[in-house]
Amino acid sequence: MKLFGTAGIRGTLWEKVTPELAMRMGMAIGTYVDGESVAVARDGRTSSVMLQSAMISGLLSTGKEVLDLGLIPTPALAWATREHADGGVMITASHNPPTDNGIKVFNGDGTEFYVEQERELEELYFSGSFRKANWDEIKSVKPIEVIDDYIKAVLDFVNHETSLKVLYDGANGAGSVLAPYLLREMGAKVISVNAHVDGHFPGRKPEPRYENIAYLGELARELGVDLVIAQDGDADRIAVFDEKGNYLTEDTVIALFAKRYVEEHGGGTVVVSIDTGSRIDHVVEEAGGRVVRIPLGQPHDGIKKYGAIFAAEPWKLVHPKFGPWIDSFVTMGLLIKMIDEEGKPLSEIARENVPEFYLTKKNVPCPDELKKRVVESSAKVVEEKLGDEIKEILTISGYRFNLKDRSWVLVRPSGTEPKIRVVVEAPSEKRRDELFEFAYRTVREAVEKAKKNKGD
After folding, report:
1. Where is the Alpha-D-phosphohexomutase C-terminal domain (predicted)?
2. What pLDDT sits at residue 370?
3. What single DSSP character describes residue 386?
């Protein structure tokens, strides 16, 4: 059985994620991690205190000292792990529904566990070969406050004061305990919505995809703000609207930062996930850098392998000079700095720096046990249909078909939910719509066929 997906362990409470799993995983982590201490934090989900308590019990049983960071965002846990501990654990299901929860594990330098480490930890988990501390070796739980210190670290790194008017949507998630204060410390005029922590997520769904946060565009226009920032449940993701209330696609945000980093470094490698678009390649190559695509959930692996100066996947940006973890707070600080330094509204900055491409993404529900069959059969149909139009096929995470006209089609299994993700981008809306209608229909038909033939 495989526990880790593209972003840690994640699933529905009691069906996959249980106190027993958390305690046993705590025993495995405590055995695996070298050093004396492990930092543990949680998001605001209703089940997170329960799971954190079980995790702490497992860690204590191996003789580790536990630093209890309480309810904080995931980027703050990563930073605090680097500053104070030999390993870190975040209890969170990130952007998943409130019924879910999960576990993310971090090294002492703040990186999420690498793929090989996750495999080794799984083996240890199932083997049960845990260290058992003697009664006189069991250490304490030490509560520590890190939010103020983390805010200061971000402010020092960004090194910028502003007078921008910012609308912030915290999704009733963990970012709500930090983001408004960080923005205020920068000098921004802050208007907050959904900024009280509530594990039921009453304000909106925690994933900051456009359909869940579209209302922020109209609100931005009514309030006359310069920038809109929305986060997810554990505040590693960030979504952005400009001063006109227009949603900036994830690829546009990535492209803006990628271009800036390459220009500052006079070249360099940018690593991005398999589901990112061609506009990133355009701006990076034009600035003298190169783009390398990697599987979802592995920006830290890409940084290590390619010595990347910047890494990203949709909504998730990594700023290696600050730390090798996904950090939406550094992203929002640097985005504000970019707007002020350019002396232009965000809409103009995006229009002048990033070419227009047209992208659509949508999920097709699919039982986990059928994902592999569905992806492979769908890819076969896509390959046969597109034929000579295909320039190359990437298979590092599902199947991505790069076409000769700079369009691309991606079919991949979700690593965190029972879904197949279909993504299409093209230079024109017509081309995008044609390709997407074909790809989405192909996957839906493959799912139905797989369900009928489930017993074969």
Report:
1. 363-437
2. 95
3. H
Candidate CATH numbers 1.10.260.40, 3.30.200.20, 3.10.310.10, 3.40.120.10; the one for domain 250-325: 3.40.120.10
Looking only at the bridges linking them, the beta strands covering 310-313 and 316-318 are antiparallel
Residue 100, both tokens: 């879910």
In degrees rounded to 5, what are phi and psi of residue 43? -90, -170
Q: Is the dihedral of CA 168, 171, 176, 179 positive or negative?
A: negative
DSSP SS3 for 203: coil
Say how far residue 5 (Cα) sits from the centre of its chain.
Answer: 13
Task: Extract the tokens encoding 62.
Answer: 């191996």
User: Whose structure tokens read 């010595």?
Assistant: 307
Query: Fold for domain 358-452?
Result: TATA-Binding Protein (3.30.310)
Buried b (16+ CB within 10 A) or exposed e, 8-17: bbbbebeebb
The answer to whether residue 273 is catalytic is no
Q: Which residues contact 215 (CB under 8 A, 6 or more apart)?
A: none
- Domain 4-144: assigned CATH number: 3.40.120.10
Task: Provide the whole-model pTM.
Answer: 0.89
pLDDT in tens, 77-136: 999 999 999 999 999 999 999 999 999 999 999 999 999 999 999 999 999 999 999 999
Which residue in 47, 94, 377, 407 is the catalytic one? 94
- Give, for 101, the enclosing helix (H) or strand (E): strand 100-107
Q: Pick from 101, 86, 92: which is nearest to 71 by CA?
A: 92
State phi, psi for 228 to the nearest 5 degrees: -120, 130
Q: Supply the DSSP symbol for 98.
A: T
| Pair 269, 307: CB distance under 8 Å | yes
d(CA 187, CA 220): 19
CA distance 404 to 41: 47
Q: In what order do the strands lie in the sheet with 100-107?
A: 4-5, 8-12, 100-107, 87-91, 37-42, 65-71, 141-143
Q: Which parts of the chain register pLDDT below 70?
A: 455-456
Burial (0-12, 13-18, 19+ Cβ within 10 Å), 338: middle
As a whole number of angstroms, the distance between CA 307 and CA 261 comes to 13
| Cα–Cα dist 412/421, whole Å | 5
Handedness of CA 313, 182, 261, 252 (dihedral sign): positive
